Amino acid sequence: MNALKTMAGPRDFLLIGDSKLISYTNLRALDRAGVTFIAPLGAARVPAGLFTAATLEAAWPVDYIAARDAGKPADQRCRYRSTRTP
After folding, report:
1. How many angstroms separate the Cα of 33 from the Cα of each of 12, 15, 39, 43, 75?
2. For residue 41, what are the contacts with CB-CB under 8 A and spacing of at least 6?
3. CA contacts within 13 A on the Cβ side of 48
4. What is the mean pLDDT of each run of 10 residues along the chain (86 residues)?
5. How far is 26 from 74, CA to CA, in rounded Å?
6. What pLDDT was estimated at residue 71?
7. SS in 3 state form for 15-75?
């Protein structure tokens, strides 16, 4: 979450788009213009089987509590896991 906060931190301009933003033409234009952007990769562009190797056992709990869960008892909060090296 800290890496995401750093990446998505304050900017002069941050373009947030849907998966239709991702095309070679758009990415080239955004890069040339120096535009910072966030957009999800469309499901059709994700290679088959990419997420099938992701298992709960391969990820460990992350010490993070979402603001919306801060006042809830621990057993009612969302839990987050990561496969990145801590």
Report:
1. 13, 12, 17, 27, 46
2. 19, 22
3. 0
4. 75 76 83 83 74 79 89 92 70
5. 43
6. 94
7. EECCHHHCCHHHHHHHHHHCCEEECCCCHHHCCCCCCCCCCHHHCEECCCCCHHHCCCCHH
What is the four-CA torsion angle of 32, 34, 37, 39, rounded to 10 degrees?
10
Helix (H, G, I), strand (E, B) or coil at 47: coil
Query: CA–CA separation, 85 vs 69, rounded Å?
Result: 25
Q: H helices within 8-79, ranges in order?
A: 24-33
Distance CA 31, CA 83 (A): 29
- Identify the pLDDT of residue 17: 81
**Both structure tokens of 36:** 């910072």
At residue 86, the pLDDT reads 54
Tell me if 38 sits within 8 A of 8, measured CB to CB.
yes
